[in-house]
Write a structure and sequence with these properties.
The complex is a heterodimer. By secondary structure, chain A is an all-beta fold. Chain A is built from no helices and eleven strands. In chain A, a hairpin with a 3-residue loop joins strand 4 and strand 5 (about 40-50). Chain A is globular, with a radius of gyration of 13 Å. In chain A, about 35% of the residues are buried. By secondary structure, chain B is mainly beta. Chain B has strands at about 5, 10-15, 20-25, 30-35, 45-50, 55-60, 60-65, 70-75, 85-95, 105, 110-114. In chain B, strands 2, 4, 5, 9, 10 and 11 form a six-stranded mixed sheet that branches. Classes of the chains: A mainly beta, B mainly beta.
Chain lengths: ~110, ~110
Amino acid sequence: DAGVIQSPRHEVTEMGQEVTLRCKPISGHDYLFWYRQTMMRGLELLIYFNNNVPIDDSGMPEDRFSAKMPNASFSTLKIQPSEPRDSAVYFCASLSGEGGNIQYFGAGTRLSVL
Amino acid sequence: GQQVMQIPQYQHVQEGEDFTTYCNSSTTLSNIQWYKQRPGGHPVFLIQLVKSGEVKKQKRLTFQFGEAKKNSSLHITATQTTDVGTYFCAASFISSGSARQLTFGSGTQLTVLP
């Protein structure tokens, strides 16, 4: 398996622009997590899905952030409008509910909002 | 919210010296996991501890879970330059809505000097 695939790997955008981050989980995994990593706040859970349904979005910073999982093999995290404080590395992770509790992380998307 | 405290934040050691990082919670944990993130990389699962007082070893790495299931440690014996990275504990709380949801510690960044 190719693992969790995230795109793009790097994104540079200007304040006010819409940003869409993409994630393809490992095939067969029924949980998907979106994290944000910064030096100041560490690794924060933003939202997670189980069987494509959002379970807990309490970590989503504000209404500018939204996440969707239209099917078992694809999820998006959208920021609109983006702000400089959104600059961070965004990770997607997936796990199989039948395979234990191990989360497999993608390589991340490094977002810079100028 | 539920937090897990991790110390130290940074550790510089000479190659061959030992290294230990600690995680503490004020509430009882369901289980605790450890992840390693290499510079520029993504978190990679190392191990999961579930039972009170559990001790697991992986070559030079020793993982412990406290008797009260509120603390854990990772000890590396005779560090090598390949051990460089940030080590995170990730806790699942008994009171959490889902055992799949993890709360990450702030991480310990290990530097090994040759």
